[in-house]
Amino acid sequence: MNEPERNNALLAAIMVIVAAVIILLLGPCRPARAALPEPLERLCARLEQPGTPQWKRALIAPIRERRIGRVEAVITYYSPNNPEDPLGGGPFAAWGGLRLRKGHAAVGTTRRLAPYGSVVYCPGALDHLLVIVDCGPGVNRADRLDVCIPDTREYLALDSRNWRRYPCWIVGRVGREQAR
């Protein structure tokens, strides 16, 4: 082996060693993560505002780390206080007897869409977080999310016959205390 060939082999060996050291120090090259969908970025920005309850602030990390699930759901509405809504049920939820309020939602009795305590965000239908606390006979489809609207006037203003599929994200879980 002549001098130039030996120098080239030595240079190639040094380059391999340098590359191995860089990989050990910096870790293997990973493709950059795609940006969060814009509705989830907006939600995180809202949750970072001062005065946000701690249980809601705790949802930011799982969202940013993409530890969330995406589902398609048909969004409908019910009112526990409306006598014109025969399937509206009573004023209390099936999960721990919580008094139903705005922001609560019901799923089908199989609870296949999401279990009790799941926090769901459906930006196309409603731009706020929903907590699954109820199930009932009015939710007769596995892909349906029935949103509680306690105020009768607000409920009547919504068109609950406009059944449309919306993208939703299951962004976390809460206990009964946070669901109140």
Topology:
Layout lengths: L2 H24 L11 H10 L6 H4 L2 H5 L4 E10 L25 E4 L10 E4 L7 E7 L8 E5 L3 H6 L7 E9 L2 H4 L1
Parallel strand pairs: 1-5, 2-4
Antiparallel strand pairs: 1-6, 2-5, 3-4, 3-6
Polypeptide structure, described:
- This protein has 180 residues and is α/β, with parallel strands linked by helices.
- It has 2 domains: 1-30; 38-179, Beta Barrel (Barwin-like endoglucanases), CATH 2.40.40.
- It is 29% helix and 22% strand.
- It contains 6 helices and 6 strands, in the order ααααβββββαβα.
- Strands 1-5-2-4-3-6 form a 6-stranded mixed beta barrel.
- A hairpin with a 7-residue loop joins β3 (118-121) and β4 (129-135).
- The longest helix is centred in the first third of the chain and has 24 residues, at 3-26.
- The protein is elongated.
- The termini are far apart.
- 25% of the residues are buried.
- The mean pLDDT is 77.
